[in-house]
Amino acid sequence: MTERQADQFYSPTWVSLLEEVKEQATDYVGKYQLMLEFVVSSPFDTKSCLVPVTVNQVSDQPLLQIGDRGCKVIELQKLLAHWNLYSGAIDGVFGVQLERAVQTFQHRVFLPDDGVVAVSTWRSLYTGAPINMPILQIGSAGRAVVLLQEVLQAVGHATTQPHGNFDQPTETAVRQFQRRQGLVVDGGVGACTWRMLSKSWR
């Protein structure tokens, strides 16, 4: 590799991309390990709780809501505790404190914060990030753009009221956010930008 090629390879853009890939890889390894670690102390038969969960099985997870009990609630409590949103007992009881933690998590990942754990919430719990978010760029319009503008405004990167059109000021705000977060600064909103927005959004 020549010196010029090395300079090109280690340009700020490539370094930023490599850092993103490294962070995501580390993150997903951590999440997979977490999914295999539901060994807990509870009033239930813990042997029946030792069922490894993979991403492909998320669609089979039951709908959970306040009043439910059992191993799946324990799993939910462990996940929310991992994301530092639940500090209550790991006892398999879906109570008010757990419901509030679910609602906080749902709000963070841009899901309806109804406190009911359905497939979309399970999937986000395993990744710690929003799922199925659209790619947005100049010319995009609609509810997702309104959400983007609301979040940008909340984190201090937009001064106009949300209006649902991805215009030049919106792109400028996105670029400012990406630069501050160490992301690739391209003005478009893809998975990495949505993820960082969710981490900044409260």
Question: What does the secondary structure layout of this molecule look like, with pairings?
Answer:
Elements: H1 3-9, H2 12-35, H3 71-82, H4 96-108, H5 119-127, H6 143-154, H7 168-181, H8 191-200
Give an account of the 3D structure:
The chain is built from 8 helices and no strands. It is mainly alpha-helical. The termini are far apart.
Descriptive labels:
mainly alpha, 8 helices, 50% helix, 202 residues
Question: Could you provide a short overview of the structure?
Answer:
Helix content is 50%, strand content 0%. The protein is mainly α.
| Total beta-strand segments | 0
Report strand %.
Answer: under 5%
Count of DSSP-assigned helices: 8
Spans of at least 5 consecutive residues whose pLDDT stays below 50 are 2-10, 28-55
